[in-house]
Give the backbone structure.
Amino acid sequence: MASFSNVEKYDQPGHKFDPDIKILLKREKDSQMSYRTRAEVFEDIFIGGMPDVVLNKSRRDVYFRSYIDTYIEKDVKRLISEDSETTFRNFISLVALRTSAELHYDKLAGETGIDVRTCKRWISILETAGIIFLLHPYMPNISNRIIKAPKIYFMDTGLCAYLCRWPDAKMLENGAMSGAFYETYVVSEFIKNFYAYNMDPNEYLFYYRDKDQKEVDLLYVRTGEIYPIEIKKSISPGKKSTKNFSVLEKYKMTIKPGLVIDSCEKITPINENAYYYPVFRLGE
């Protein structure tokens, strides 16, 4: 079971996410949600969504330390050899440091000191447990121009921040991994929303990156349509945020108006093909 989503954390009515801008504008008009600044969003990212932490039943660091210990003792020990426990703990932290990055098994295995086969098995263990999610590139027709590696996302940003040893939300917001955590937060919110409505995110959510370094953070794909989504931690990061949307025309599908999810206060048009969308509204 996933940790609390944004709307669950703030006890707000949620809806199945629909990328259609008309639906999103109507929901914004009817919404009772209050604006959350970027600093407040990073507090949410740092705390995460684990119920005991959110409800102040447990101290954050104590809870996550116990969570890792319990997870390894109950769920992992029977799947790995006893002498691999310390290595597995190190492995989880190395995976956390790669949140929102492409997964290359050979590099991760080399840094952990394990073979690639073991690395794949351990990634599978984390994925099955719901600790991470692998977002795959969109490849309706396989092309050697498309990057084929999946991207790793931690499902709880609080746990990820704990494993990466970020001491507080402000340092996380201003640190080298701030963009990666912001992106992880957004993607995990989408995935939690899919789970809440019994939908498989693997059927709808993808990313795009090719060997010419053109990238779109998220693609929401449904029959004959692609909704491109960029994720930027800044406020109104500029029109260049949508510069790669046009590369999707190669798929011969309808490219719908896309979103740039950022720390803005309200939905605002960028141009006829894209809108700024407030991160704090995810899931409403």
